[in-house]
């Protein structure tokens, strides 16, 4: 008999008032018994709507069935047939708008906790089994992957399994891309990301750090001089957007990219043990409503800020952040200033932030994105007294590669133009995927793109 | 890992290191910079490239020991390695097509001005070099600069080398003597670049300055290096580091440079305590 409880089995978490002072992971994960109990909520329905909601088509009912039977190792192999980074996806995928949204159980009560179960299976496997690299027959063909985020790692891993000699070029000193510099430790432990990277390395993939492609080597040089027969570009969306309002260059104004990179990659939360500092005032305003904004706000709180505001111009219903992140942020004491838009940042005489002026908004007619357009209410300006402002209104692809590669077409906004199914670009032998193509999106979509491109690169090189 | 193949002490606070980094060396151009990190706990620090050798595969950096990281770097010796060394970053300087150029280096800025003077000299321009230091014992690259310039003026703040004054005084004198420069390049402390730019604006001489603000990645990702140029926000790492000196908001740049003053002091003091402890042990 399935477990007919309307609610997901609760996942143990650190208490909000404890965790908002440390950087340890918020959710502690299911025990084996909890996982089996939750797995029994799955009805194993014939039409499997959840699978269609997954960008990489994880065979969800199959792996959940195996969990219910206590066959955790088999469940892991079932997931990894289509998803090479389950420990990461279980933690950062927006399940509520993908697989769990389509779950039959969600029609009455909560959906099956698919994300939590995926995470459990991946963690169980890492704790109990050793990853054994598969032996593959080498094809003696070199492929270059630019960027070591979720798209690049997935593409590199898949190509290596097919027998290609893969070299990944990473601009930073540490591989992992946004998984390392962007998403905080309390949401995605770096040791876990490191393990996934080690797994990719164990397949024979070479990762070269400190290599800024477009500067130290161009795409053309990779193909003409360095002997790579195909290139995959997964360089992400690393360019921060600013608002263009008065006061944005005052001391104490950060892009979310800079704020999070200082904390996550450079370990500023351990300053002065680590040399890189970060400045957090007593009062902090974070502008934006996505996951990055939630990450920045919750990090600021953990670094000792007393009042942390999320300033977002629409209402909560339009917020692009995962529900869980919004929920966690509220629990941790983040203050939501919704339907508010910054108009300028106020500074002291010597150039430090002292406040942010906002205007109240109301929702009008739907705009191009289908969300109701926020319209300012005349004369409703108000000031939040803050010493730190973090701008988290989005990122666009870095123009470096496009501007240094002849014949690589891009959109006006910076995204590389690539085929949806294959990742093929306008340049022969060059494929692209992930945020570099779509603009800032999700880890799972980037992984999906890396997978499709690996398949397409294989076909391209076989027919070459 | 990136090996230090040569180390030279240029004066009491300034050192030169030649680093093995063949990929960077192949592409490095005057005006571009690198970012280094000494060890796992270290910060990423940008330094303008002082010289490079494609055949040897080395890049030369010259640095002043002012903070924790540069002091720590100064303790490393030939044969030691840096954990990270990435570049070349930023845009190369456009030096083609000039007939007569004044290249000005203030203090450590002289190290960055040197490759510019060298390239201009090679391109056939008449190069006048003005360098300024606090006192005689801090003078660096005198011989090197002499080799790549048609005229070299060295000034000291205290007059200990027999030529007292600021680089702006020297530049003004040369201009008043009738030297007609079609470009001035000024590299050094922000206040010096500001004063040079103010002077050349009066004479209507195009002026390039090299900005070196706080940055993390050096590829346009963090925006920490932003500055206002001609009323617009620019990123020094990808839009620069060279900018039109008449357009740069130096006052804002000087304020932004103070952002981590207290934190820098804190790590430096902790570092010096440790070094002192090691000496006494």
Written account of the structure:
The complex is a heterodimer of chains A (464) and B (281). In chain A, 33% of the residues lie in helices and 16% in strands. Chain A has 464 residues and is α/β, with parallel strands linked by helices. In chain A, the strands form 4 sheets. Chain A has a 5-stranded parallel sheet. In chain A, strands 6-14-7-8-9 form a 5-stranded parallel sheet. The longest helix of chain A is centred in the last third of the chain and has 21 residues, at 443-463. Chain A is globular and about 65 Å long. Chain A starts with 15 loop residues before the first helix and ends with a helix. The model of chain A has no long low-confidence stretch (mean pLDDT 94). The longest helix of chain B has 20 residues, at 261-280. The radius of gyration of chain B is 18 Å and the shape is globular. With 281 residues, chain B is α/β, with parallel strands linked by helices. In chain B, α5 (167-176) packs parallel to α6 (190-203). The mean pLDDT of chain B is 94. The two termini of chain B are 30 Å apart. Helices cover 32% and strands 30% of the residues of chain B. Chain B has helices at 22-27, 68-75, 109-122, 142-147, 167-176, 190-203, 236-239, 250-257, 261-280; strands at 2-9, 14-20, 33-37, 45-48, 51-53, 58-64, 81-82, 84-89, 100-106, 126-133, 151-156, 183-187, 207-210, 226-229, 232-235, 242-244. Chain B is built from 9 helices and 16 strands. In chain B, the strands form 4 sheets. In chain B, strands 11-10-9-12-13-16 form a 6-stranded mixed sheet, with helices on both faces. A 5-stranded antiparallel sheet of chain B has the order 5-6-2-1-7. Chain B has a 3-stranded antiparallel sheet with strand order 4-3-8. Classes of the chains: A alpha/beta (464), B alpha/beta (281).
């Amino acid at each position: 008999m399935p477990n007919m409880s309307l609610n997901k089995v609760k996942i143990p978490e650190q208490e909000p008032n404890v965790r908002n002072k440390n950087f340890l992971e918020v959710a502690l994960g299911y025990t084996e018994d909890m996982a089996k109990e939750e797995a029994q909520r799955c009805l194993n329905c014939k039409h499997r709507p959840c699978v269609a909601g997954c960008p990489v088509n994880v065979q969800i009912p199959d792996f959940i069935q195996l969990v219910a039977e206590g066959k955790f190792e088999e469940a892991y192999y079932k997931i990894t047939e289509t998803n090479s980074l389950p420990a990461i996806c279980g933690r950062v995928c927006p399940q509520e708008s993908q697989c769990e949204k389509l779950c039959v159980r969600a029609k009455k009560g909560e959906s099956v906790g698919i994300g939590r179960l995926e995470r459990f299976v991946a963690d169980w496997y890492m704790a109990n089994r050793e990853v054994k690299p598969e032996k593959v027959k080498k094809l003696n063909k070199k492929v270059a992957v630019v960027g070591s985020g979720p798209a690049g790692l997935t593409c590199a891993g898949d190509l290596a399994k097919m027998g290609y000699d893969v070299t990944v070029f990473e601009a930073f000193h540490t591989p992992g891309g946004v998984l390392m510099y962007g998403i905080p430790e309390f949401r995605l432990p770096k040791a876990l990301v490191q393990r996934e990277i080690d797994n990719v390395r164990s397949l024979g993939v070479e990762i070269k750090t400190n290599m800024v492609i477009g500067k130290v080597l161009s795409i053309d040089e990779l193909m003409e001089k360095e002997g790579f027969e195909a290139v995959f570009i997964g360089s992400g969306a690393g360019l921060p957007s600013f608002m263009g309002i008065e006061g944005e260059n005052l001391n104490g104004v950060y892009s979310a990219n800079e704020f999070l990179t200082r904390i996550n990659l450079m370990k500023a939360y351990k300053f002065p043990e680590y040399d890189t500092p970060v400045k957090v005032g007593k009062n902090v305003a974070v502008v934006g409503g996505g996951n990055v904004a939630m990450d920045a706000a919750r990090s600021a709180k953990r670094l000792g800020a007393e009042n942390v505001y999320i300033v977002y111009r629409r209402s909560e219903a339009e917020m692009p952040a995962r529900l869980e992140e919004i929920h966690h942020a509220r629990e941790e004491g983040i203050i939501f200033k919704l339907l508010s838009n910054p108009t300028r940042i106020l500074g002291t005489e010597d150039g430090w932030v002292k406040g942010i002026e906002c205007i109240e908004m109301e929702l009008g007619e739907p705009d191009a994105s289908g969300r109701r357009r926020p319209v300012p209410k005349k004369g409703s300006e108000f000031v939040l007294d803050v010493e730190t402002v973090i701008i988290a209104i989005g990122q666009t692809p870095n123009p470096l590669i496009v501007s240094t590669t002849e014949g690589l077409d891009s959109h006006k906004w910076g995204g590389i133009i690539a085929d949806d199914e294959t990742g093929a670009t306008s340049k022969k032998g060059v494929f692209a995927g992930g945020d570099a193509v779509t603009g800032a999106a999700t880890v799972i979509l980037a992984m999906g793109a890396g997978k499709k491109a690996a398949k397409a690169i294989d076909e391209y090189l076989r027919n070459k | 890992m990136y090996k230090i193949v040569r180390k030279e002490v240029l004066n009491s606070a300034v050192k030169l290191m030649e680093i093995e980094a063949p990929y960077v060396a192949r592409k490095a151009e005057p005006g571009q910079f690198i970012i280094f990190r000494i060890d796992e706990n270290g910060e990423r620090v940008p330094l303008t490239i002082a010289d490079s050798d494609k055949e040897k595969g080395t890049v030369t950096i010259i640095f002043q020991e002012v903070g924790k990281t540069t002091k720590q770097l100064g303790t490393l010796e030939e044969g030691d390695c840096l954990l990270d060394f990435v570049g070349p970053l930023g845009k190369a300087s456009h030096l083609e097509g000039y007939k007569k150029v004044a290249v000005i280096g203030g203090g450590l800025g002289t190290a960055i001005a040197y490759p510019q003077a060298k390239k201009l000299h090679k391109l056939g321009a008449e190069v006048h070099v003005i360098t300024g230091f606090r006192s005689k014992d801090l003078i660096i690259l005198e011989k090197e600069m002499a080799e790549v310039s048609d005229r070299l003026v060295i000034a000291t703040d205290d007059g200990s080398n027999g030529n007292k004054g600021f680089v702006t005084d020297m530049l003004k004198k040369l201009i008043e003597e009738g030297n007609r420069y079609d470009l001035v390049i000024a590299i050094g402390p922000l206040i010096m670049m500001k004063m040079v730019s103010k002077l050349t604006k009066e004479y209507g001489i195009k002026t390039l300055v090299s900005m070196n603000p706080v940055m993390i990645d050096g590829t346009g990702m963090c925006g920490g290096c932003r500055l206002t140029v001609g009323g617009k926000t620019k990123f020094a790492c990808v839009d620069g580091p060279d900018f039109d000196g008449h357009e740069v908001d130096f006052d804002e740049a000087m304020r932004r440079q103070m952002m981590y003053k207290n934190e820098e002091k804190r790590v430096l003091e902790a570092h010096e305590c440790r070094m002192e402890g090691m000496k006494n042990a």
